[in-house]
Design brief:
It is a single chain. The chain is an alpha/beta fold and 489 residues long. It is built from 15 helices and 23 strands. It is globular, with a radius of gyration of 24 Å. The protein starts with 16 loop residues before the first strand and ends in a 9-residue tail after the last strand. The mean pLDDT is 96.
């Protein structure tokens, strides 16, 4: 009985296994804990560097045949994969909720995005993939996009389905094969669900390998000569290490890293709407999003009112187990992250910030928090918190707002709220950022947009839409003549 004959979400498929040339038992098993309860959800295999080498070798061997498969057949696989996710969405929702600690609507966003990404990938295979260039003497001159070969994808725990499949699907669509290393906290929603989807959709064997593992597996992927590109999403610190390691073998590297995103609220803004935007940007998925609103810059005329409204919202947002309760916030991913968030809050208070709401926790559940009187130099101003902490900074002029907004090494997402769109656009033009939202908060994504940051938020690479061709292929120049010329030599 093959895995296609087993119920789609039967945990026996992956229990203690890796998706390495199919489902195979690993030398070491790894227990996946539910962040809300600490209970064991399932067991998977834990990959080794040797597994990564074998996966890369097999992926490289499979790549040419995959790229040569007729485009209609490749497109059909992506369309079928999208249908499978829609069919299995109820069961997948429960896995995303329990493995990541998110509320069900956030799981719905992941599934909706994944379907959109797969349909975009299906469309890629029939899009133009080159240009006809000017040439003299009867020669045809072309520039075409060709696949790299094998793409290594390293994804994080916060939005694991989206942040894996947004690289896996377009990389495959462009003719590459893929080795995916999901975060060991979320290997099911970040890896094995994707493996099951593509397996049932008919992706040929060895075109996708999924290897949950630690940093040693990521390092092996960066060094492996059979892997031509690394697509990494994660912290800035880890991204620097990945870039350095992959650079030694001259791989293409796309880094989508952290953010300390600014929401600028000008004095003509509607304070109720501004507070609503700030709360959503700060607290969605417990602040565990690279686009989370990290600093709220509010004009001094309305700062007190916006802070009051924001603190009121924080105090009334329910926190609890999203698998069993109707809540707005679930748990942080683990105790280590909870302690880091609390340390930033406590240190910032010692540095002079005032606690307007929250600042406490039970287990991995951290209360939505509001810090006021925040100034440059405080940890909550400088560091990416990755927790539900709103840091409010007041300013007196647009020049001061721009200066404060630019006091960061990051450059991922920026929101500006104002009654005047022209005023907001003029201010935003003075703040470097990868994503810009006028009259909205900082958290947004769609399957067809080029997503990414600058500075310490990334190396300028992008995922999505037209950027997928730039990232997952490279230019090849081709010239064609009727016959070979005779040269003087």
């Amino acid at each position: 009985m093959g895995s296609n004959d087993i119920p789609f979400l039967n945990t026996g498929i992956w229990n203690g296994k890796l998706f390495l040339s199919g489902w195979n038992t690993a030398g070491k098993a790894h227990e996946i804990l539910e962040p809300a309860t600490g209970s064991v959800l399932t067991r998977v295999g834990m990959a080794t560097p040797e597994d990564a080498a074998e996966a890369a070798k097999r992926a490289r061997a499979a790549q040419a045949a995959w790229a040569a498969l007729p485009y209609e057949q490749r497109a059909a696989i992506f369309r079928k994969a999208a249908v499978i996710i829609e069919r299995e969405s109820d069961g997948m929702t429960q896995w995303i909720v329990r493995e990541t600690g998110c509320i069900p609507p956030k799981a719905g966003v992941e599934l909706h995005m994944a379907v959109g990404i797969l349909n975009e990938a299906a469309a890629m295979v029939t899009q133009p993939s080159g240009l006809v260039l000017p040439s003299d003497g009867g020669r045809i001159s072309l520039a075409r996009r060709v696949p790299h070969g094998v793409v290594g994808v390293i994804s994080p725990f916060n939005f694991p389905l989206i942040l894996s499949i947004r690289a896996v699907a377009p990389a495959l669509a462009a003719g590459n094969t893929v080795v995916l290393k999901p975060d060991p906290h979320t290997p099911i929603t970040g890896g094995y669900l994707i493996a099951r989807v593509f397996e049932e959709a008919g992706l040929p064997k060895d075109c996708l390998q999924v290897l949950p593992g630690g940093a040693d597996v990521g390092q092996a992927m960066c060094a492996d000569p059979n892997i031509a590109m690394i697509s990494f999403t994660g912290s800035t610190g880890a991204g620097r290490s990945v870039g350095e390691q992959a650079g030694r073998t001259l791989k293409k590297v796309t880094l989508e890293l952290g953010g300390k995103n600014r929401l600028v609220i000008l004095d003509d803004a509607d304070v109720d709407l501004a507070a609503s935007c700030a709360a959503w940007g700060c607290y969605l998925h417990q602040g565990q999003i690279c686009m989370t609103t990290g600093v709220i810059l509010v004009h001094e005329k309305i700062a007190a009112k916006v802070t009051e409204l924001l603190a009121g919202k924080a105090s009334h947002l329910p926190v609890g187990d999203p698998a069993t309760q109707q809540v707005a916030l679930g748990p942080l991913i683990n105790e280590r992250q909870r302690d880091r968030v609390h340390g930033i809050v406590q240190d910032s208070i010692k540095q002079g910030a005032k606690l307007a709401a929250g600042g406490t926790y039970e287990g991995n559940f951290y209360k939505p928090t509001v810090l006021t009187g925040v100034k440059p130099g405080m940890r909550c101003f400088e560091e990416e918190v990755f927790g539900p902490v709103a840091s409010v900074v007041s300013f007196s002029s647009e020049d001061e707002a721009v200066e404060l907004a630019n006091r960061t090494e990051y450059g991922l997402s920026l929101g500006v709220i104002s009654a005047s769109t022209s005023r907001a656009l003029a201010l935003a033009a003075r703040i470097p950022t990868g994503l810009l939202h006028i009259n909205d908060q900082t958290v947004a994504d769609e399957p067809h947009i080029p997503f990414g940051g600058r500075g310490s938020s990334g190396n300028g690479g992008r995922h999505g839409g037209p950027a997928n061709w730039e990232e997952f292929t490279q230019w090849q120049w081709v010239t064609i003549k009727d016959s070979a010329p005779r040269y003087p030599f």
